Amino acid sequence: MDDVRIVVSGLRKQYRGVTAVDDLSFTVEPGRVTGFLGPNGAGKTTTLRMLLGLVAPNAGTATIGGRRYTDLADPTRVVGAVLEASSAHKGRTGRNHLRACCITARLPRTRAEEVLDLVGLLPAADRTFKGYSLGMRQRLGIATAMLGDPRVLILDEPANGLDPEGIRWMRELLQGLAAQGRTVLVSSHLLSEMQALADDVVIVAAGKLMRQGPVASLLTSVGGDASVYARTPEPDKLGAALRQLGATVTTEGPNRLRVTGMAAESVGDAALAAGVALHHLTTEQPDLEDVFLDLTQAKAAIR
Ligand SMILES: Nc1ncnc2c1ncn2[C@@H]1O[C@H](COP(=O)(O)OP(=O)(O)OP(=O)(O)O)[C@@H](O)[C@H]1O
C-alpha cells in the first residue's frame, strides 16, 4: 500500500466567537488504530470534517497520503468515512442502499454483497432501513464506507448505540482492517473501549492538542503511580506502619486502604512486620480515563 498517513498541520477553524480548532497538528499512521479523544466541544468533529473536505479551515492543512481530500482523484477508493449514525432512504433495503451507492461510485454491484458480508449484515440485507436497529445502522454505515475498499477509514463515534457484543465486533473489525495496513482513525468518548481498541491516541481539548502517542506509553508517562489496595481488619495500624515507611495512604471504605508510592510486595512485608493480617492486596495501574481527565479537565471547564 502507498503512504496513507494522515497529517494534520497547524489546522485552525473559527466560528463566530468560538475557536473550534486551534493550531492543531498530529499524524495518524497506517497499520494502526488511532483513537481521537476529547471532551464535548473539543473540536473532534470539526477536525474530521476538515479532513474530509466538508469544512474549509481558516489556516493549516489536513492531508491523506500527502493530498487534501478535495485533491484526491478517486476519494471513495482512498477514504471511507462514517460521520454520524449512517442515514439511508427509510424505505430502502440495506442491499438496495448499497447497490445505489455502487452505481454512484461506479463500482460493480457485487461489491454490495461483499461489504454486507464484511459487516455481518447479510441476514438483514432485505429489510428496510427504517426497521434497522442503531447497531444495524452503524454496520450499514461501515459497509457504505468500505465499498471502495479504501485504505483509510475515518469514523466519528462508531460505538454509539452498540451493545457489548456489537462493540466487540466493531473492535475486531477495525483492528483487522488496521492489521491489513489500513489507516484507521476513530473518535470516541468511550475511554475504556478506546483502551481496548486503539494502538495510538490523539487527545484534544478546547481545539488544541493535549497529547499524542501510543496508548501504552501514554499510560506510563502521564498516568502517575500505580495504586495498591489493601484490605485488612486493622486499617489504622497498617496505615500508620505504611506512612512511617513513606507511603501515601488514604482510606477507601471500611477496612480498605489505597496506598501510593509503594509496591504491593513492600505493603505485604510491612503488614507482616507490623503483625497485621491482610485479607486482600491488589495493584491497579492508571487507565486511559485517568490520563484523559488529567489532561483535559482544566481545558474542558472553559467550554
Ligand atoms: N457550524 C458551527 N457553527 C458554530 N459553531 C460550531 C459549529 N460547529 C462546531 N461549532 C463549535 O465548535 C466547537 C467544537 O465542536 P465540535 O463538534 O467539533 O466538537 P466535538 O469534539 O466533536 O464535540 P462532541 O464530542 O460534543 O461532538 C464547539 O464549541 C461547537 O459549538
Defining key terms:
303 residues, alpha/beta, Rossmann fold, Alpha-Beta Plaits, six-stranded mixed β-sheet, four-stranded antiparallel β-sheet, 11 helices, binds adenosine-5'-triphosphate
3D architecture notes:
This protein is an alpha/beta fold and 303 residues long. It folds into 2 domains: 216 residues, 3-Layer(aba) Sandwich (Rossmann fold), CATH 3.40.50.300; 61 residues, Alpha-Beta Plaits (2-Layer Sandwich), CATH 3.30.70. The chain has 11 helices and 13 strands. The strands form 3 sheets. Strands 5-6-7-3-8-9 form a 6-stranded mixed sheet, sandwiched between helices. It has a 4-stranded antiparallel sheet with strand order 11-12-10-13, covered by helices on one side. Strand 6, helix 6 and strand 7 form a beta-alpha-beta unit. Helix 3 packs across helix 4, helix 4 crosses helix 5 and helix 9 packs across helix 10. The chain is elongated, with a radius of gyration of 24 Å. The model has no long low-confidence stretch (mean pLDDT 89). Adenosine-5'-triphosphate binds next to strand 2 and helix 1.
Topology:
Layout (H helix, E strand, L loop, with lengths): L5 E10 L2 E11 L4 E5 L6 H8 L7 E6 L10 H4 E4 L11 H11 L5 H9 L15 H12 L6 E5 L7 H16 L3 E6 L2 H7 L2 E6 L2 E7 H8 L4 E5 L3 H10 L3 E4 L4 E5 L3 H11 L5 E5 L3 H13 L3
Parallel strand pairs: 3-7, 3-8, 5-6, 6-7
Antiparallel strand pairs: 1-2, 1-4, 8-9, 10-12, 10-13, 11-12
The structure holds adenosine-5'-triphosphate.
Protein name: ABC transporter ATP-binding protein
GO molecular function: ATP binding
Keywords: ATP-binding, Nucleotide-binding, Transport
